Structures are given as C-alpha cells and as structure tokens.
C-alpha cells in the first residue's frame, strides 16, 4: 500500500470522527438519525443538518481519490446521504394526504409532521400534540435536496416521487403568508402554541423555491418530465416579505440568532448586502455571549428559572429570563461558515478560537460541540447584577449533532479540503452581488387591422394578433389554468397547483408547448376583472409600476418581455386615448421612469427572452408523454376560439319604445346619494359618538324625496296614440338626437355635482309646494314599478337610471323580474289608453330580465362613459369584489401592517390575519351598512395601498395600522379644503374621481405632498402635485371661477392651517415618530400605567414583551386607536414623546402611578390659552375670550367656537411643535405641573431644546 499524502491522513482522521459521532447513530433500516440514545424521534431539520458533514466529506474525498479505497469511501459516504434523504422522503410520502389537504386549508393540523420515528419512519405524536407546522424544515429539506442533486447525487428515483416533490413546492410556496411554529418549534415565545409569521421560515422557503426552480431531479440523466417548476412570483413574494421583516424574526421575537442560517449558509436568502450586514450586527450586539449566542431575548428554555413541569410560560414570567438565557455554541459554527463564505479569514479564526474554548473534550480527545450553556442555579443572582460575568455549565446533548456537523464543515473549509463553491453548487452565495441593469422588452399588439391603422397614424407601427402567428397571444388566466396541471398524480392522489395567481414575472416569459410558442398578457390587463381595469390612465400607471418592478425583481436568464394587446374596449370615442399614445412614445424612446425598455415585435425578441417548457402538460401517467393531456387539449381548443372576442353589453332600452310618463321621476331622485356615509362636515372627524349609522348619512341636508318640489311634472308631450304606432312616429328617426334636444330630460343632466347641490339648497328655501299627490311611499302597487321601468327605458341619463334602479333594489330586491312591465301603463290623464304590440316586457332574447341584469347593463355603460361615482355604486350593489382583494390585504398584513375598515369610532373592524375573498367582502360591507359606494371605495383603496407597499415601502415607515375609513374621511376633507366646498360636495367629488386620480390622491396623502385640483373635461377632477415645498398655496380653483367669498378664502394667508393639516394627516395615517413604541416602553417601565382614552397600558406589559417587539407596538397602537379624532391623537403622541424625554434623561427615578396622558394635553391647552390672553393672540377670538363661568357652559354644550376637536383649541393644533409658543413647550410645562415626581422648584437642566 502506498504511503498516503498528508491530506489523505488528515481526511481519514475526519472520516473516523464523522463515523464515530454521526454515522454510528444512523438507523440501518430507515437511514434516519434518532435525537439521542434515549429518544428515537427523528426531526427533519436536525437530520438534514447532521448529514451535511457527511456530504461535505464525500466531496473532499472525491477530489483526492487516487486510490480505489478512497473512491470506495467517497461512494459509501455519498450513499449514506442518499439513504437519509430518501428516508425522510419516504416518511413524508406516507403523509401525502396531508400535503394535498394543506394546499387548501393551510391549517397547522393538516401539516406534515416535524418528526418521525427513526425506526420505521412513521408518525410518533398526534397532529395536535406538537407544533408540527414548520415550513423551514420542509424548505431546508428541499434546498439541500436541490444542492445535493446539483452536486451529482441521485436521490429521487421515480416520476411519482418527482410529482410529490413538486407538490412539496406548492406546500411551501405561500410561506410568506402562513404563520408557523418556526425553527425552535415554539411559535409565540410565551410557548402557548400560537403560530406566527417567522422570517427564518420565509427566508428558507424563498431559498428552496429558487433552488428548485427548473431543477432536473434526475440530474444529467433526466428529461423534461423530471423537471420541477416554480412560479418566480411566489419566491419573490417571500423575498419582499423577508426584506420587510428583517432583522425582526416575528411578532414576539424582535431578533433571533436562527436568522444566521437565512442570511448565510445554507439559505443565502437575502440579496441586499446592507440588510445582511445589519441583521448580523443586530444579532451580535444583542444576543452574543461568551458561550455562543442566545436564541432570542427572554428565551426561558433550560434556564434555572424555567418550571420544567409545564410547557408554557405565564406572561409575567418572561421578564425573569432576561440576561440568563442559555447560550448556544451552535451559532459560532454558523458564524464560522458565514465568514468562510465571505472569505474573511480573520473573523473565521476569531470565531474558531472562541468555539474551541467552549467545546468539550471526550475521553479519546475528540472535540465535541455541546447543545447549550446555562447559568448555574446558585449564580443566577450575580448574573442578573452583572450580565455575562458568571461561569456557565453545559446543559442538553453533547455532542449536539446539528452543531457538530456544521463544525466539521467549517474545519474542512478552513483546512482547504473543500472550496465554498462545492458546498453551494447552485451558486446561491452570489445572490447579493450587484447585477447589471435589466432591459425590459415591451411588445404592443393590435386587436385588429383598424386599431393597427389608428396607431400607424401616430407613427407607431405594431402587428395584429393574426400577424404575430405562429406565436399565440393569450390572457394570463390561460397560463394560470395550465399551471393547475403541474404536479397532478392520480396514484398519489395529488391534484396539482391550487393558487390561481400568476404574477408579472411569470407572464414576462415565453412558453413553449411541443412546437407552439405562447406569449401571455399580464394579469392586470385582464379586462373581465374589475372596473379599475376600464380606467386607461390607471392601467398605464400600473404598467409603469410593473415595468419598474421587473427592473428590480427579474433574475432569470434572458430579458423580461411584457406583451400588451390594444383592444376596441380601450378606445375613447373611437380614438386611441392620448395618455396611451404618450406612453407608447415614451416606450419608443427607450426609457420610462428610469427603466431601460425596448419596444419591438415578438419575433425580434424570440432570441433574447426567457422561454419555459410546459412539458408537464403531457399525459405522462397514461404512457404518452409526447401527447397533450386530453383535458388540456380541449381547454386550449375551446379557449383559442374565444380568447380575445368581445363581450356584447346588454341593451337597456328597446329601440323604438316611447316613454309614457315622467311622473315618478322625482321620488327616486337622490336614491343613491342617500346611501352615502362619508362624514366630512363635522370638524371633529369621526366624532359622532354612538349615534346609529343611519343618522350619519350625508342626506341629512337633502329633504326626503317626496317633499321635494317636483320639477318634472310635465306629462309627456309626445304621447303617441296607438293608431300612429311607434314606427310612423316622427321621433323614431333621430331617436337619440331629438331626445337630447327637445325631450324634457332631467334638467340636472350634464351639470356638475356642485350645481346640483346648490339646486338642492335652493329647493330647501322654496316653499314646499307639492305639485302632485304622491301615494304614500309604502303603498307599492305594480303600476308604480311599471312607470319606473318605463322611465328607465326612456331616460338617457345614467345617473337617473341609477337612482331608479337603486329605488327598485330597495323596494323589490335584486332578483325582481322586470319582464312584461313598463308597457301596459294605466290610462294617462289625457285619457288615451296605451297598449303596445311588443308585450314581451324587457325580455332579452326571450329570457327573464331581473333588476340585477339591468344593473349589470348600467354598470357596463357607466364604465364606458367613465361615470365613476355611478360605477362604484352599481359595482357595490351587484356585490362585485376586487379580484385581488384578498391578495392585496395579505400583501399589507405580511408586511406587518394591520388594516381596519369602517368609520371610527363605532364601526371599525380590524383585520389581523389573511381572510378569504368572500369573508373580506362581507366584513367590509357590514362595516359600512348600506353605503355601497364607500364599501367599493374601501376595496379599491386597499388594492392601491398594496400596490404602494410593493413598490414604495418607505411610504409606510412607522405606520402599524392602516385605517381605511379614516383615510377616506381625510381624502374628502382634503378635497373640501382644496376646493373650498362643503362636505357633501367634497364626498361627491371623491366618489366621482377616476380610479387613477383616486390612486394619485391617496399617494399625495400618504407622502404628505401638497396637491392642487384642476378640473378636466366632463366635470372630472385631476390631482396635480404642487412642485413647491411641502407647504404651498391653497389650490385656487373652485369648479368654475371662485366667486365672492371663495376668492377671499383662497387668498387668506396660506400658512394658516398647515400644522393642523399635518397633524390630521399623520393622525389618520397612524404615523408616529421613529422608535416611538420602544420609547413608550421605557416610560411604561417607570410608571404603573399609561391611560389613553379609557384604555390603560399596564406596566406588566414590560414584564412580558421586549421594547422592540411588534406585539408591544400593537398594544400601544390599539390604545391610541381609541381616539377618533386624528389631530387629537397626534397631540397625545406628542405628549408621550415629552414623557419619553423625561425618562431618557433620567430626571427622576420613577414617574409614579398611572399617568393620564389626556390630562397632559388638556393642561397644555390651558397654559396655551393663558398665554394667548396675555399676548392677545389669535385664540382670544375663540377659546381664550370667554371668562371662566361661560367657558363651562360652552364645554358642556359640546362644541368650541373654533371647532377644535376634543375641547382643544384649534389654534393649539395649528401651532408648530417647536418655538416658545410651540406645542412641545406647553407639553413640557404641563408634564412638570401634572406629575408629582418632577421637582416643582430648584434648578433643573432643561434637556428639551
């Protein structure tokens, strides 16, 4: 035998260690590792980490294998890896029914088990006896499976196993929205078994999804059938949520050392180098000790203070674990690997020497990694006094195989037996390097020749759908349907992909299927979806956003390709809308919003785009992999026929039918308006007290319809007598035209909402003359309905049709059949009985027509004519819901933003966990009562908020709850301020804004930018940014010219009201100063409690929660949310900030008992008014002028002269925070006066400057 080289000898030494410490424990039957000699359970996570050392060693042998015995050793080690990975695969495949069920329910009880018997791979504890749902364990398995397969091991043997693993991919793909028990199996750190969203699970899932994408599980020997497919968008969602969470681990753990495996080996899940750095620094600065790192703050596991007789902790107990948490050497192993991959030799050596000091030597001299180190019982007191000073003792298993395995990997890397690339054959470690700029390719296709020619007039040359053949263009829903066939397997009872969502990353690729090539239009362009899609400007805005998103998110081979089809529906009065032309010109120029783009035709881009093979659509299970699955074949054949055909809209009126009477028109007037509940006029926003919903309607200004002077009491002049018959009527010639000119249409038809409103006011001043006897509203006979339907047929004005239909819905219900009505009217006053040949009623092609069908027709018309107020209302009445509503809410929630809907204070509902579409819609509509328009607006705003949080997360900093009801009120308030109109007009304007302008207004309110409103055609408003500073002139437009007093208001000093407005915006958006919640924690620690609007935050919260914990922030937020008026809430926040300054500068050892924060604000208000009297300030005109006696009466009657909310003078709200008359000054004085603990006299250093 030849003498071995030094490296060979050293490797043999490691092989002995690996054999003795790790392989000796591997069960011969299943290949699994038991937890210890006394516990035969095998955890997925621990097993995968254990085998890594074996895998690493096998690759080291492969490199020096110059002798047969080395090759044999290498093979033996490799097969141990295969044995273990297959053992876990078999254990999971035994639970395939759970995988199938979990795709639907995502319930913790339907999840794969976290541990199995190492003897036979069967379950060892019941579904509900353990926190089994641990997405990170399944993800880790898939990630290492992918890495091992890429390194040349063959682990998966059959196509059935391939489809099972494809289903495991579906199992983890929505990790970003599934709360689980996490890497420590505990969920919430109180250990009560509540799962939470964990950053470490989401990061591991993202890594697994990326590693699995397009991976051939049969390695080099496989074909298209053994490839795993992942929708890129799912991995990207995990990434976005992970980035928004780091360095936080979950709601109850503000930091966790487990994140080391996400930012470094094995997951490498974070692409942002700065974020990796910040997370590692946070862990080192707060969790590192002499003996390793703590798992997380206040971790009671195995500490001397833990009560071993019960699993859970009492909430007050957690404080006892502070500073005595166990320290785990395992994390030093992670840090060594982290720095080895960064090739930072110095840091590797430093951690290696630290680790050696705390390892335990066995009898035969092998270094062992112990599980953890705890403070001995008798030294706990000293450790509390001086954290980190006491000598600790080993607790738990030794050797701890998870840590031992990582330690051996670290040694192999340090001694040069392995290169980092060998442990990461998929090159995941390069994710955080800078990538070149992405060029987004855009293809515009015309629906037919006519549209192509229209575009050519503008010098834009495109192809039609027919001309791009053989490439087929399909809507995104076709792709989502095709993906449901992925992973189907009859033998295993697996049904394929459940989610129907395909994002922009998936539609930006080309797909090949046998010899066909498909391009898909993006999901947002699918017109059948929702009314938002019929606003061209908004669609263009979304397109720009998506192009921008592709620039940052695209990481596939090839360039992204966005295919858009320009259709008839997009035309505006048969012209291509200007906004579209401008955008196409921009695209042609090569840059749009800072992203490089190329506009071209599909065939130009074939070579540069990413192409994915849809081979999984073959009937592999029936033995014909080359033929399409029969269902797919029929679906495609059917779909290709109707993919881009237009839907015909329903016609409301029969062509020649002439009207009968206009008598009932007035009683429906304003029916829609009566349902509105946005409240603007009351200056104390949302402060109505407990009055029931109906009393908060805007219609309080409008007299009930039957009291209104009836202007249209003319009987129809052109009542055609039966002899003439409708055909010979002169009217039927220029039907539309004449109707517009001589027909007595609603006089309000084309006027703006403001004129209409003055009309109402005028009507109120006129004596109420009832021109006609109206039968009581309640006595409904058929005739009444018939007249209504007759009116419905003849009126051209959609608003009016809306009012009539609203009235019909209220009285008859949505499913009322209108067939056969509206013709056989009662004899008219002029005595001519009417009958009509066409008695078929409103039958359309011989079927029943319900009120719902009529509403649908109206909805589609309103969409075409862009009457947005009506669109929103009819959409609400039809119970439409935004397609992506649940997705939008999930997008907000997983980024740790809670959402509330409904108007505060009484009808506000908080959404804290993702809900299904139907429940969400129900919740929103319950919150707004009958107010359909606002309910629809709420859904719409949630979608815009989700768009913003995806593209501009910085807008949402320091906001924990998004209160959509308040945001709507503030939007209306801002409009009424900008337009100088009253509340009702403002809310009319708000509901009539086009979706694009609505999104724009929301953006200005979120970002705090000033805006002006300009009027564009058709009485629509447009929101324009003011380019100047944050505080600019009030917009000077009313609609039309500002008359009289309006002009005066607009020219008053525009600085007035600016602070009030900022406080109102910040209050409504729940925005707080930086580190606000953790600073409130320090205040709470020094007093017995903080009382806000009747809610007391107890000091005991600090016992349970750490300062940076999200759960604590939510407690504070809930208390602040009790305050209905946004500007008052902001002053309370300012008062709390002053208290934090008192504690931070250690002026006093304790703040005493319960502090009533409102007292501070009211005290500050008193001091302010006293100063105002002294200097004769503005407030002497309102609050400061009355002497004390009358002041009491005034307060009792509930309103201040200046309209300030919560009895605080408007002028105080409008003072800047700083300066000698600033709010902070008064707050500080109030704190000094109200708190007993602050010394009343003597010198004190003033820290508040």
Automatic annotation (TrEMBL):
UniProt xrefs under InterPro entries: 6-hairpin_glycosidase_sf, 6hp_glycosidase-like_sf, GH15-like, KPBA/B_C, PHK_A/B_su
SUPFAM superfamilies, per the entry: Six-hairpin glycosidases
Pfam families the record matches: Glyco_hydro_15, KPBB_C
Top-rank lineage group of the source organism: Eukaryota
Location relative to the cell: Cell membrane
Keywords: Calmodulin-binding, Carbohydrate metabolism, Cell membrane, Glycogen metabolism, Glycosidase, Hydrolase, Lipoprotein, Membrane, Phosphoprotein, Prenylation
Membrane topology of this protein: Lipid-anchor
The UniProt record lists the keyword Ubl conjugation: no
A GO molecular-function descriptor: hydrolase activity, acting on glycosyl bonds
Record pathway: Glycan biosynthesis; glycogen metabolism
Domain Phosphorylase b kinase regulatory subunit alpha/beta C-terminal: 979-1173
A GO biological-process term: glycogen metabolic process
Purpose of the protein: Phosphorylase b kinase catalyzes the phosphorylation of serine in certain substrates, including troponin I. The alpha chain may bind calmodulin.
PANTHER family: PHOSPHORYLASE B KINASE REGULATORY SUBUNIT (PTHR10749), PHOSPHORYLASE B KINASE REGULATORY SUBUNIT ALPHA-RELATED (PTHR10749:SF7)
Identification of the protein by name: Phosphorylase b kinase regulatory subunit
């Amino acid at each position: 035998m030849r003498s071995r080289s030094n490296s060979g000898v050293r490797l043999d030494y490691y092989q002995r260690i690996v054999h003795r410490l790790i392989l000796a424990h591997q069960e011969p039957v299943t290949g699994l590792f038991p937890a210890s000699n006394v516990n035969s359970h095998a955890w997925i996570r621990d097993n995968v980490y254990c085998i890594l050392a074996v895998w690493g060693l096998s690759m080291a042998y492969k490199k020096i294998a110059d002798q047969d015995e080395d090759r044999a050793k290498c093979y033996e080690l490799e097969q141990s890896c295969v044995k273990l990975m297959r053992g876990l695969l078999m254990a999971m495949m035994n639970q395939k029914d759970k995988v199938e069920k979990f795709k639907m329910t995502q319930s913790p009880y339907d999840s794969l088990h976290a541990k199995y018997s190492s003897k036979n791979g069967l379950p060892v504890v019941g579904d509900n006896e353990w926190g089994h749902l641990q997405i990170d364990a399944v993800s880790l398995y898939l990630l290492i499976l992918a890495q091992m397969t890429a390194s040349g091991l063959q682990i998966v043997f059959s196509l059935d196993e391939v489809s099972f693993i494809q289903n495991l991919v579906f199992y983890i793909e929505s990790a970003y929205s599934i709360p689980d028990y996490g890497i420590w199996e505990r969920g919430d750190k109180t250990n009560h078994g509540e799962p939470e969203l964990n950053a470490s699970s989401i990061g591991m899932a993202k890594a697994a999804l990326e590693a699995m994408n397009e991976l051939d599980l049969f390695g080099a020997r496989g074909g298209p059938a053994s490839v795993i497919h992942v929708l890129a968008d799912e991995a990207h969602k995990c990434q976005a949520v992970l980035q928004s969470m780091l360095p936080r681990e979950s709601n109850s753990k503000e930091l966790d050392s487990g994140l080391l495996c996400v930012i470094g080996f094995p997951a490498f899940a974070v692409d942002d180098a700065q974020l990796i750095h910040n997370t590692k620094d946070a862990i080192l600065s707060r969790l590192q000790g002499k003996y390793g790192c703590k798992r997380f703050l206040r971790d009671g596991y195995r500490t001397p203070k833990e009560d071993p007789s019960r699993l859970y902790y009492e909430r007050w107990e957690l404080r006892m674990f502070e500073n005595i948490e166990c320290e785990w050497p395992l994390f030093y192993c992670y840090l060594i690997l982290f720095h080895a991959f960064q090739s930072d030799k110095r840091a590797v050596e430093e951690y290696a020497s630290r680790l050696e000091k705390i390892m335990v030597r066995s009898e035969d001299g092998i270094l062992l990694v112990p599980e953890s180190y705890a403070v001995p019982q008798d030294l706990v007191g000293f450790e509390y006094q001086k954290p980190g000073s006491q000598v600790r003792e080993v607790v738990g298993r030794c050797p701890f195989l998870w840590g031992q395995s990582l330690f051996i990997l670290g040694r192999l890397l340090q001694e040069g037996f392995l290169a980092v690339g060998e442990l990461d054959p998929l090159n995941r470690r390069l994710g955080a390097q800078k990538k070149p700029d992405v060029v987004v390719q855009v293809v515009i296709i015309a629906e037919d020749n006519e549209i192509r020619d229209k575009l050519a007039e503008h010098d834009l040359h495109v192809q039609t759908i027919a001309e791009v053949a053989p490439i087929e263009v399909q809507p995104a829903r076709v792709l989502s349907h095709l993906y449901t066939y992925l992973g189907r397997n009859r033998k295993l009872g697996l049904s394929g992909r459940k989610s129907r969502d395909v994002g922009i990353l998936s539609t930006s690729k080309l797909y090949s299927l046998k010899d066909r090539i498909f391009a898909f239009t993006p999901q947002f362009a699918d017109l059948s979806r929702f009314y938002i899609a019929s606003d061209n400007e908004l669609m263009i805005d979304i397109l720009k956003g998506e192009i921008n998103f592709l620039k940052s998110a695209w990481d596939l081979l090839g360039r992204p390709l966005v295919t858009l089809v320009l259709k008839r529906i997009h035309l505006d009065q048969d012209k291509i809308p200007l906004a579209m032309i401008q955008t196409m010109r921009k695209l042609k120029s090569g840059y749009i919003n800072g992203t490089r783009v190329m506009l071209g035709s599909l065939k130009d881009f074939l070579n540069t785009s990413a192409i994915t093979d849809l081979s999984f659509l073959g009937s592999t299970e029936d033995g014909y992999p080359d033929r399409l699955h029969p269902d797919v074949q029929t679906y495609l054949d059917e779909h290709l026929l109707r993919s881009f055909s237009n839907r015909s809209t329903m016609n409301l009126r029969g062509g020649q039918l002439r009207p009968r009477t206009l008598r009932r028109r007035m009683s429906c007037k304003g029916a829609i308006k009566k349902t509105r509940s946005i409240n603007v006029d009351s200056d104390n926003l949302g402060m109505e007290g407990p009055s029931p919903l109906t009393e908060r309607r805007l219609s309080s200004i409008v007299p009930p319809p039957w009291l209104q002077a009836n202007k249209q009491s003319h009987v129809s002049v052109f009542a055609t007598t039966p002899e003439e018959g409708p055909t010979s009527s002169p009217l039927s010639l220029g039907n539309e035209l004449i109707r517009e000119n001589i027909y007595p249409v609603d006089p309000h038809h084309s006027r703006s909402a403001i004129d209409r409103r003055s009309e109402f006011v005028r009507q109120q001043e006129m004596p109420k003359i009832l021109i006609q006897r109206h039968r009581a509203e309640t006595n409904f006979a058929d005739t009444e309905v018939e007249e209504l339907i007759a009116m419905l047929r003849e009126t051209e004005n959609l608003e009016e049709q809306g009012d009539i239909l609203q009235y019909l819905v209220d009285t008859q219900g949505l499913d009322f059949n209108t067939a056969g009505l509206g013709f056989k009217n009662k004899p008219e006053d002029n005595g001519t009985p009417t009958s009509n040949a066409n008695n078929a009623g409103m039958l359309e092609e011989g079927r029943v027509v319900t009120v719902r069908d009529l509403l649908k027709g109206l909805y589609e018309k309103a969409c075409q004519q862009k009457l947005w107020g009506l669109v929103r209302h009819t959409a609400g009445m039809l119970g439409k819901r935004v397609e992506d509503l649940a997705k939008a809410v999930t997008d907000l929630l997983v980024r740790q933003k809670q959402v509330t809907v409904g108007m505060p204070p009484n009808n506000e509902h908080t959404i804290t966990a993702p809900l299904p579409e139907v429940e969400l819609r129900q919740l929103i509509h319950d919150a707004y009562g009958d107010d359909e328009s606002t309910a629809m607006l709420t859904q719409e705003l949630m979608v815009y908020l989700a768009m913003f949080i995806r593209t501009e997360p910085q807008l949402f900093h320091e906001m924990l709850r998004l209160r959509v009801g308040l945001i709507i009120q503030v939007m209306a308030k801002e409009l009424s301020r900008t337009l100088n109109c009253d509340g009702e007009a403002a809310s009319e304007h708000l509901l009539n804004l086009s979706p694009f302008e609505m999104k724009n207004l929301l953006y200005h309110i979120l970002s705090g930018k000033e805006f002006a409103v300009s009027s564009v055609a058709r009485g629509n408003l447009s929101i324009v940014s003011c380019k100047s500073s944050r505080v600019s002139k009030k917009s000077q437009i009313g609609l039309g010219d500002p008359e009289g007093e309006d002009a005066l208001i607009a020219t008053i000093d525009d600085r007035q009201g600016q602070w009030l407005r900022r406080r109102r915006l910040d209050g409504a958006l729940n925005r707080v100063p930086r580190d606000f919640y953790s600073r409130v924690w320090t205040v709470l620690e020094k007093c017995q409690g903080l009382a806000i609007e009747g809610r007391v935050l107890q000091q005991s919260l600090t016992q349970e929660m750490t300062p940076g914990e999200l759960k604590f922030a939510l407690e504070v937020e809930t208390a602040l949310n009790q305050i209905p008026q946004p500007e008052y809430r902001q002053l309370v926040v300012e008062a709390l900030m002053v208290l934090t300054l008192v504690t931070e500068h250690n002026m006093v050892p304790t703040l005493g008992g319960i502090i009533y924060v409102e007292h501070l604000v009211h005290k500050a208000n008193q001091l302010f008014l006293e100063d105002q009297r002294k200097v004769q300030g503005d407030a002497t005109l309102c609050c400061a002028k009355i002497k004390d006696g009358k002041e009491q009466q005034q307060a009792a009657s509930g309103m201040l002269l200046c309209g300030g909310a919560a009895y605080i003078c408007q002028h105080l709200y409008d003072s800047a925070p700083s300066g000698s008359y600033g709010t902070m000054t008064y707050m500080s004085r109030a704190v000094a006066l109200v708190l007993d603990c602050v010394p009343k006299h003597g010198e004190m250093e003033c820290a508040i400057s």
